[in-house]
Amino acid sequence: MDTETMRLDRIRRDLVSAAEELIKEALYTRPGDLFVLGCSTSEVMGEAIGKGSNLEVGEVIIEALLPVIRGHKLHLAVQGCEHINRALVVEREIMLRDDLEEVNVIPELHAGGACSMAAYAAFDDPVMVEHIGASIGMDIGDTEIGMHVRFVQRPVRLPVTHIGQARVTSLMYRPKLVGGERAVHHP
After folding, report:
1. Domain total for the chain?
2. Does 84 score more than 80 pLDDT?
3. Cis peptide bond prior to 152, omega within 30° of 0
4. What is the pLDDT of residues 138-158, one digit of tens each?
5. What is the pTM of this model?
6. DSSP labels for 78-129?
7. Distance between first and last Cα of the chain
8. Per the domain annotation, does 182 fall within a domain?
9. Residue 163: which domain range?
């Protein structure tokens, strides 16, 4: 097995492990919820964000993540880069279900990114939307997904801290704590 194949296999394994752990830790995530992914394949490959987009890595990431997400009855939304204002790829059924605003753009390698391109190709009926309210999210390479995770967000520390060379940051939604000193809250 060559070095590149071994690297892609490691990316796939680490990603699946991190996604499974994140889903397990997300206390308020239910079937039908959105899982947002932000990913810089440049960072995964050890380059500066936006400087080495890699479609093959993007395809490996989406191919590895989709079965995990679908296996937990969640829906994947993939955030594009700032060159498309961080618009997201989702399935049309999700856009219609959640009354999301469609935007007119198609992700490209240097305007949207490799993972957005791979998701757009892999989804059954992809559309691009402007904003979502995911209950869970994974950010690979500091792409800043917080704007797409419901308020209140809580970081989730995972055993997998990197995918390739990119740092992994994960978020989960939790309901706001309301009430005064007599209020009782779930753990």
Report:
1. 1
2. yes
3. yes
4. 999 999 999 999 999 999 999
5. 0.94
6. EE--GGGTT-EEEEHHHHHHTTPPEE----BTTBB-HHHHHHHHHSSSEEEE
7. 47
8. no
9. 3-173
